[in-house]
Amino acid sequence: MAWARRILRVNLTNGTCTPEPLNMDWAHRYLGQRGLATKYLAEEIDPKVDPLSPENKMIMATGPLTGTCASTAGRYSVITKGALTGAIACSNSGGFFGNELKNAGYDMIIFEGRSPKPVYLYVENDDAELIDAAEFWGTSCWDTEEGIKKKHQDPLIRVASIGISGETGCKYACIVNDMDRAAGRSGVGTVMGSKNLKAVALRGTKGVEVDDMARFLSVTAAGKKVLAENAVTGEGLPAFGTQVLMNVINEVGALPTRNHRDVQFDGAHNISAEAMAEPRRSDGKPNLVTNAACFGCTIGCQRVSKIDRTHYTVKDRPQYHGASGGLEYEAAWALGAATGVDDLDALTFANFICNEQGMDPISFGATVGAAMELYEMGVLTDADTDGLALNFGSAEALTTLAELTGKGEGFGKEIGMGSKLLCEKHGHPELSMAVKGQEFPAYDSRGIQGMGLTYATSNRGACHLRGYTVSSEVLGVPEKTDPLVADGKAGLVKAFQDATAVVDSSGLCVFTTFAWSMEDIAPQIDAALEGEWNVDNLLELGERIWNLERKFNLDAGFTGKDDNLPARLLKDAAKTGPAKGLTNQLEKMLPEYYSVRGWTTDGIPTNETLSRLAV
Ligand code: SF4
Predict the structure, then answer these.
(1) Is 294 in the pocket of ligand 1 (CB under 6 A)?
(2) pLDDT at 1
(3) pTM of this prediction?
(4) Is the minimum distance from the CB of 475 to ligand 1 under 6 angstroms?
């Protein structure tokens, strides 16, 4: 129950779409979505394959709760070997696409091979076919989604697509569904583009059954009550979205600024949730139009904004006068503090372009920040940038590069390489603020020590969504720990990583964990599925998933040496704020982390650990 018990295998080389039964042994051991799809990927590909070769596979996967009436249960993930990192990639998205996939009767779709020409997959319950996508190739995610709905004369189709950036090889292209929700990180859209797969369009009407409906209704209702009564999920996120963090993280001295040269941004307020809600547009209204929610979500954290029509980016372009998703905190940080730009409308415009052309705004903004540092050092010159002055704080540079990168043109082609390749190419690899090739999100690990360990050990490269210790270190959830202290962070990071792996495999949104503990989540899974699911066996399942991902990366060629941070964070102390004088103390935390994980001192899971977890 709750699982559809069926997957769709799409061979793009041969043009075939074949349903097959879900491996139920694996489903019981890996739950769904992130965990279960990683198991399929690890079993079906050589981890050493080139991510952009036909031998790589890409899986779109739901969790068992996806499509049910549990709050936030509309999630799906894209699992593949990442184009940006060469590591295991799992990018999670909300909106309505995941629900539609489950309702079409599939737990996941496995894409293999490479189509000889651009195609899109159209699924209507049991019918699945690959359709020529020539008319959509070279168009944006927005035009593709609209065009497919029009072509099939069905506005209720749910579409996930790549934009031009995914076709032109931007390393951090994402997959956009429902116009502004995205499987954003690690270049999953780049992999999709390499397969000549432009879009996936779904129509599903089957419904989702659960094991014990009466109990499921009762425990999911109790869960919704907890979310509604919690200050973060019931008030903060609906009112301010994740952007509520901008001023908070700046205050604690952990807002990476100008490519991590600083930890506080003097323009933070101008790009904050508070600024988005101020009446600052020329028509007297705020940029923020409303909040919004993904399928079944009772939190509603999503922001929907408009750009001031007199702003230089859009004054002659009415196609950008409507509302689109954002700004969310990570995007506002990457497009703003990381580049030193505090023009809210410019950030909103750059974010629109990321939605429109399918680019990860975190990697894009962070790479622009790295390019600005190279430019100010004189390493990059006007000759490299086609005359564009890349000074920190330049809104024009940011917005111009967003458009160029989105279309894979001019210097945007270099920004699309990501900061690692860009900085290596220009002789300064130390200026790439990344782990395993993936750019940091919005927390400086000199001011939040546990996040340094989280980033260094994250299986998909630097990421806040693999173990959000900010919850404990800054927000005090589930209990407060000191962000400036490294002691005890190894166990904290492991606990967050394992619990997050469970949530990411269930179909639920990780933002529920601001209010829900595993004690709230386990009964919902237990009522939905056959068998016994409790806190203990779910946390063990999370640990199994973490070790499976680790094993994939080791087999791909990564080693413990890749569990590292850029020298800037380990050697250059924070200049201001509560962390002034501090660097990240990774060397202290990492050996302890390996030990609590049951790994060797080189970071390799021991046979005993792998066999205890039945990986
Ligand atoms: S909390 Fe936000 S991101 Fe999560 S499901 Fe709800 S609206 Fe979507």
Answers:
(1) yes
(2) 74
(3) 0.98
(4) no
